[in-house]
Amino acid sequence: MYILEGNIGAGKSTFLKMLCKELSFISIGRETKNSWVTKVDGESLIANFYQTPKRWAYTLETLAMINRVAEHKTEQEKSYPFHIIERSIYSGYYCFAKNCYENGFLNEIEWNVYRQWYSFLTTDVCHIPQGFIYLRVDPDIAYERTKQRNRSEEKKITLGYLKQIHQHHESFLIDKISIHYEMVTTPVLVLDGNLDFEHNPEIFEKHCTAVEDFLIHTQPCAPIKGETPFKSPPLE
Fold first, then answer.
1. Measured on CA atoms in the order 46, 170, 189, 128, is the torsion positive or negative?
2. Superfamily in which the 2-217 domain is placed by CATH
3. I want to staple 145 with a disulfide (CB 3.0 to 4.6 A). Which of 9, 22, 61, 152 is the partner?
4. Which residue among the candidates 61, 75, 86, 110 is catalytic per the annotation?
């Protein structure tokens, strides 16, 4: 199993959708956001967080962790090796929850409780992936994209917040600062998300080639490129 990571507005969902059409031997699992995006009693949890982060950070991050662990557990049980899922409990911890704590949105008690749950779940429930694919994008470009897609729950996102989340992704996936020792050696493929892969076939083709090479050559017994012995599963 592999995990696609990236900042808000990086284009992760679009990239996965296009990738599974181009590379027939992969299967994908998209991030489930309904439980914190969908309005309940007229309110969206993620919209509430952006408006009043100190009040809603612990609730949002805890619910996101529960959902991501459930998704991770389901996906890791699939035997197919070329499976890519969107986002993870790891970026939830190292990027989003950690950023909340550093900004004072989570107090010491909330942060310690969250960390204990994370430690338990990643030790006994979640298995570290075969590799990460990092769709890397400059915060300014990510900010413009969030404005263009005009999602109601993202109206309160600031450029400053995206810069913080970007830096945490860099620390987690590029510099590998203070991460679990087993993930230090986990391979990371970095793709330039600033380039408009959605409307430029040449750029998208380069990304596809990079992903294909990465997936094949990070297998325990890497087959020759183009000669994968695995039967492609139905798209999800």
1. negative
2. P-loop containing nucleotide triphosphate hydrolases (3.40.50.300)
3. 9
4. 86
